[in-house]
Specification:
2 copies of one chain form a homodimer. The longest helix of chain A is centred in the last third of the chain and has 26 residues. Chain A has 13 helices and 23 strands. In chain A, the strands form 6 sheets. Chain A has a 7-stranded mixed β-sheet, sandwiched between helices. The two termini of chain A are 34 Å apart. Chain A is of the alpha+beta class and 463 residues long. In chain A, helix 2 packs antiparallel against helix 6 and helix 9 crosses helix 12. The first copy, chain A, is 35% helix and 27% strand. The radius of gyration of chain A is 24 Å and the shape is globular. The mean pLDDT of chain A is 96.
């Protein structure tokens, strides 16, 4: 076996993260400050997230569109909270085609403004509602302390934008996206259990009436926001004049929502499951679910046949027949990349009519008969998917502690405290020590309704 | 029937194009000058193109990646032709995070420079070659006379970037992409027949050794470049120091290629097939291949059942049950949107046990028995796909004229003239009259090898 290549998590978690992102060839820093080059393995993970999300966004009735990334500065000034929130983060184009522009253009930090402007033209009557749009796009928010995937000046995301006839319909949309689209992908594909809750006033999106979020726990005990869904009330409808004629012919302002999930999720996937040997990928998000490793030249053909049978059974499998490289080095490399199952085919395996099976999610080796391999591996992948979610949930639950006072909030993990005991002032004081209220839930752990009186705050340090 | 909504092509083709793009709700102008909002129907077309292209790009061994869109200005200055070609079109970010930047950033007009810079780090030895990368991205080139899809300041595309050990391998890649990826999609999915040829020196990509292109004829007799593939020689490898150690341990510069296809293709699809009633979509690129139109309330259920059987047979079908709207208006709208097959289900159709079938690609109505409808419609869609390509090829061939002298080049269509008769000077004079050499082919209509002496120039006015 090759020597360990990563800084151990327990020694220095941020350093471990840097190491694994670099050595598993997920991404690296771009030439322009704060930007990121996403390499093939990292992009393949993002493509898996994209395709799972896109299918659910379409299944819930949304149409994909594309809006320009250049936004007239004037658009931002129409919604007071919005401009205040985003102005410090804008990148501004001042020159185009060799000339200075008469009006500078912002590079989109989010698209509520341009989409609101279009909706005001596209929506006339109640029959045009709901209008359910989504776009896949790059986004720019100037970052002073960039970290690959987690906080980069440019990142990739999808942003949904919808308009509705009533507050209730906008509320239903906001929650549907959080639960049926985002959490379904994050929990059931990425195997990351999240808290589903509402943000405090201090943490909500600039211009929103309410922000709902998914908050997951990383292996260092810090929280990461995995996706957000905003009820925008009539704020943007009023700023951009999105009105419709209702069934009685009366003109009303629409109610809008917006929601986004980004390449940051890939960072969350790495930090929620990774260990000292590298990534650990849940099968559903793994670009390669099974690698068949030909140990020697004379097992290359058998390894290829096994791979072909796996592919025919619907498994994303590949063969590693680089027998010019040492076996140990290749095994370590696939572990680093997080492939869920490794099947080793050596001369003695072939003699015994089996392959040696190594799961990435736990220790130990097993064997699987070559004959029934495809079917049993397909079943095993489902087991691994479930096991990884269970493990992550247990880790999260073990790190969730009830406290009576803000003074007890100290260390890794989630701290549960009644919101009326913490309050806005307590929240402000926590912030001074680097802790934030990640979200508010009901005492039963449910998403609170707007009028829910009894709320529990989940506090943590966060990325 | 509703009154005609489009300017007839024969009256004013550019106006017809504007009309159809607006009325079929493909796209509209964005708030920032020269930009474009791609609406759901237009974006659905682009998604079809994307998925067909992406599958072929992956099948030929390329990995998807993502590079930052902000490029330090200094990168452009390393390749002399490249900076000269792109400088006039750059958009420049001078402010970020509320401060003036010490070095301004260009918004990518293409990514040879940033990808070349990364390749110089990623490629060490001959075993790292070929390196086959692709990215899906937005691109900015400042446009003085924007036209939706055809020329917009921001557009969407994929750009492939590869590095190879030898000139021959780079040449094979350049041609493989043109033929097996681009032309396969444009001819066999978009049903648009293209000329496949080489660009003249005057028309090639800034920084390329040779540019190969697909040139298609629009219905007004003008040409549109549908995709390009560039052999970059060692120009970028030398500018960005992309070297590798060969099998003998000797350091050599790599040979690189790049190639791109963009949202412009959607404009080409519109202009190659559209008629005075709107779009005409080949089935393989149609987001909806069959619309089942319920004529009256009491045929809504039967229409829904028929749609379900079509979907089960793998047809992209939808039902139009908006019986509150007039039948004629709905029929005209689906024709405008270009859906290949309309099945009308009215009370008399049901009585007769059939649906009325209307093909978008030709005049006339037919009937199809409800029982075997799914299978016969699936077969019909293949027939329509072939018929549309045949029709477009005949139109192109009819509009291709052999001429003996540059003076005879006048009017719509392609003009074939031996390149040694036209020459660089003839090309220059043609340009003064608005004609360009679209590409050079062999006398047999093949892609010329670099040393082919006998070349035929295809000249046309172009978008």
């Amino acid at each position: 076996m090759a020597p360990p290549v990563l800084t151990p998590q327990a020694d220095d978690f941020p350093r471990w993260y840097q190491d694994v992102v670099a050595k598993a060839e997920l991404a690296e820093t771009g030439a322009a400050r704060g930007t990121m080059i996403i390499r093939p393995w990292g992009y393949a993970l993002w493509e898996r997230v994209q395709s799972e999300l896109d299918a659910r966004i379409k299944a819930t009735g949304h149409d994909n569109v594309y809006f320009p990334m250049f936004i007239p500065m004037e658009f931002f000034e129409r919604e007071a909270e919005h401009v205040e929130g985003f102005s410090p983060e804008l990148a501004v184009v001042t020159h185009g085609g060799g000339k200075e522009l008469t009006e500078p253009l912002a590079v989109r930090p989010t698209s509520e403004t341009v989409i609101g402007d279009a909706m005001s033209r596209w929506i006339q009557g109640y029959r045009d509602l709901p209008m359910l749009l989504n776009q896949w796009a790059n986004i720019v928010r100037w970052e002073l302390r960039p970290r690959l995937f987690l906080r980069t000046t440019e990142f990739l995301w999808q942003e949904g934008h919808t308009a509705h006839a009533t507050w209730e319909e906008a509320q239903a949309e906001t929650i549907r996206i959080l639960v049926e689209v985002y959490d379904d992908v994050i929990r059931n594909v990425l195997a990351v259990p999240s808290l589903r809750g509402r943000k405090t006033e201090a943490e909500k999106f600039p211009g929103a009436e309410a922000t709902y979020a998914l908050e997951a726990l990383m292996r260092d005990g810090k929280a990461l926001q995995m996706g957000t869904s905003h009820h925008l009330g009539q704020n943007f409808a009023k700023a951009f004049d999105i009105t419709f004629s209702d069934e009685n012919g009366k003109t009303q302002h629409a109610w809008t929502t917006s929601w986004g999930m980004s390449t940051r999720t890939v960072g969350g996937l790495v930090m929620a499951h990774g260990d000292d040997r590298g990534l650990r990928l849940p099968p559903k998000v793994a670009p390669v679910q099974v690698v068949v490793l030909a140990v020697k030249d004379d097992t290359v053909e058998a390894a290829g046949n096994l791979m072909a049978r796996l592919v025919a059974a619907g498994v994303r499998a590949t063969v590693d027949d680089r027998t010019n490289l040492g076996f140990g080095r290749r095994a370590v490399d696939w572990e680093l990349k997080g492939v869920p199952v490794r099947l080793e085919v050596g001369p003695r395996d072939l003699e015994a009519g089996h392959a040696t099976l190594v799961r990435r999610d736990r220790e130990g080796k097993d064997t699987v008969g070559l004959d029934g391999a495809a079917a049993s591996v397909a079943t095993l992948l489902e087991e691994i998917q479930t096991a990884m979610l269970t493990e992550a949930r247990r880790r999260r639950d073990d790190a969730t502690i009830d406290v009576e006072s803000a003074d007890d909030i100290d260390g890794p993990g989630f701290f549960r405290i009644p919101w009326d005991r913490l309050g806005v002032e307590g929240e402000r004081r926590l912030a001074e020590r680097g802790y934030t209220v990640r979200c508010l839930l009901t005492p039963d752990g449910e998403i609170p309704a707007p009028d829910t009186a009894e709320l529990v705050a989940y506090c943590a340090k966060a990325y």
